[in-house]
């Protein structure tokens, strides 16, 4: 059985490395404030942050990134444990749209599913961080073209060391292993004009050391001593050893095959998604007996988040996403959601997608029910949730899949241009939301 992999990094290089090695990870950015993490670590040992050895800095940051994403998964787990309400199951191809075949206690559904899916390993969470050391100084991402130009001219004809910290956690067992890789990078001699042209491409601005070995920067690198993949921000040989220390076979992480990659390519081309859009495991189209293609090889899910009126405690608004024009049914309004990734159940997928698209954090909400539209080979799960008493969700577009996000009064939702399936289901959803009990006021 394939063990899912979670990459706690938004680095395209690391993601491409894993995909080429047969592993398409679920990408979860950590949101770690790197300077703050290093400052706190330095304070504990009584030194300045820049006095910490570079090898130690990357280890600290890799550990912090993995820990941050681990906490997110713990919050998702708590949201599932605290879930309440009912799950409504519809099989429209058999019973007609709008019909409900079964109603079950959601806690029973979740506990039954969890009991069936008990695993000894995984998902495997990988946290990494890289810094380039030159003349004893650590260099992260330059961000600014002038900084990149200055750094690259300084290393012309010289060598430096690329350090990468790795922290790997088996979320099933909680075991954690760490290690740091390093590779010596030797640069050729080049002119200021060469580097000005290179910097103008933008490629070196968001990578440690201001260079890449897998892109246009490769022409300026004369040699590497150490793991070539380590220079791209993740040492595959070292990662394989760390995974082995957790008792996991490297081959058990492989989830890339030709058929799925064709589906990913179809997904990218058909939706005309931005080139930098991250495709997660589970992205792709499913041909359905209803005559349509549906998004999500493992099904799809989203969060219908409700907000209560402060005076009555009754639900008064829902958070909706105005979908990007390039997406399926672009320009319509619906709930934040998307394809369920490999190894996720529908609630986990809905909570991940709703954070990516709308900044809905699992610790700020209560799951209060679900609605499953099951087409047989594909299903969509709408997760009903409401803000926790005393907590607020602050919508923010964390990716490029939205035009805008808005709290919409219940009685105004039907006036929007709604996503087809959501519009069809909205009258039943409206009635269900109206029937939820009033939320008790926050105790002061």
Q: Which short descriptors sum up this protein?
A:
Maf protein, Nucleoside Triphosphate Pyrophosphohydrolase, 9-stranded mixed beta sheet, 2 domains, 7-stranded mixed beta sheet, 18 strands
Put the structure in a nutshell.
The chain has 444 residues and is of the alpha+beta class. It has helices at 12-20, 34-45, 54-81, 92-95, 106-116, 145-154, 192-200, 236-245, 258-271, 346-358, 420-435; strands at 5-7, 26-27, 86-90, 102-105, 124-134, 137-139, 159-170, 176-187, 221-225, 285-287, 293-295, 300-308, 315-323, 333-334, 337-339, 365-374, 379-387, 402-409.
Explain what the structure shows:
The chain is an alpha+beta fold and about 450 residues long. It has two domains: about 5-70 and about 120-250, Maf protein (Alpha-Beta Complex); about 285-435, Nucleoside Triphosphate Pyrophosphohydrolase, CATH 3.90.79. The protein is about 30% helix and about 25% strand. The longest helix is centred in the first third of the chain and has 28 residues, at about 55-80. It is elongated, with a radius of gyration of 24 Å.
The gyration radius over C-alpha positions equals 24 Å
Overall pLDDT level: 90
Mind telling me which CATH architecture of the largest domain this is? Answer: Alpha-Beta Complex
Structural class: alpha+beta
- SS summary, helix count: 11
Q: So what's the overall shape?
A: elongated
CATH topology of the largest domain: Maf protein
The overall number of domains is 2
Strand content: 25-35%
**Secondary-structure element order, N to C:** EHEHHEHEHEEHEEHEHHEEEEEEHEEEH
The first-level CATH class of the largest domain is given as Alpha Beta
Largest sheet report: 9 strands, mixed
Question: How many β-strands, per DSSP?
Answer: 18
Distance between the termini: 50 Å
């Amino acid at each position: 059985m394939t063990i899912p992999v979670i990459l706690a990094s938004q680095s395209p290089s690391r993601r491409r490395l894993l995909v080429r090695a047969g592993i398409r990870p679920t990408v979860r950015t950590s949101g770690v404030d790197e300077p703050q993490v290093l400052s706190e670590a330095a304070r504990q040992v009584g030194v300045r942050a820049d006095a910490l050895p570079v090898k130690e800095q990357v280890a600290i940051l890799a550990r912090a990134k993995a820990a941050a994403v681990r906490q997110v998964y713990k919050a998702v787990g708590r949201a599932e444990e605290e879930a309440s309400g009912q799950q409504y199951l519809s099989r429209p191809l058999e019973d007609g749209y709008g019909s409900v075949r079964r109603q079950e206690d959601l806690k029973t559904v979740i506990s039954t599913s969890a009991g069936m899916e008990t695993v000894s390993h995984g998902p495997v969470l990988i946290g990494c961080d890289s810094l380039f050391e030159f003349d004893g100084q650590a260099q992260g991402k330059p961000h600014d073209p002038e900084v990149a130009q200055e750094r690259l001219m300084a290393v012309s004809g010289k060598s430096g060391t690329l350090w990468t910290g790795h922290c790997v956690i088996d979320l099933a067992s909680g075991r954690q292993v760490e290690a740091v890789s390093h590779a010596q990078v030797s640069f050729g001699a080049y002119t200021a004009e060469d580097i000005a042209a290179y910097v103008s491409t933008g490629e070196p601005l968001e990578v440690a050391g201001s260079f890449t070995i897998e892109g246009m920067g490769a022409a300026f690198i004369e040699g590497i001593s150490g793991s070539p993949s380590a220079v791209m921000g993740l040492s595959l040989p070292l990662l394989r050893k760390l995974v082995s220390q957790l008792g996991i076979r490297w081959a058990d992480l492989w989830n890339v095959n030709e058929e799925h990659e064709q589906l990913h390519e179809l997904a990218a081309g058909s939706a005309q998604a931005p080139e930098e859009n991250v495709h997660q495991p589970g992205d792709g189209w499913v041909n359905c007996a209803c005559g349509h293609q549906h998004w999500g090889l493992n099904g799809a899910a989203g969060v219908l988040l409700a907000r209560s009126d402060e005076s009555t405690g009754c639900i008064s608004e829902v958070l909706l996403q105005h979908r990007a024009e390039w997406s399926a049914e672009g320009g319509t309004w619906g709930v934040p959601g998307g394809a369920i990734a490999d190894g996720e159940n529908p609630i986990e997928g809905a909570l991940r997608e709703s954070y990516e698209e709308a900044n809905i954090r699992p610790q700020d909400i209560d799951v209060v029910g679900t609605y499953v539209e099951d087409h047989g080979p594909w299903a969509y799960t709408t997760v009903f949730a409401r803000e926790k008493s005393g907590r607020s969700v602050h919508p923010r577009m964390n990716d490029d899949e939205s035009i805008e996000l808005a709290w919409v009064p219940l009685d105004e939702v039907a006036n929007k241009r709604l996503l087809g399936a959501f519009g069809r289901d909205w009258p039943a959803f409206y009635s269900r939301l109206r029937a939820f009990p009033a939320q008790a006021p926050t105790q002061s």
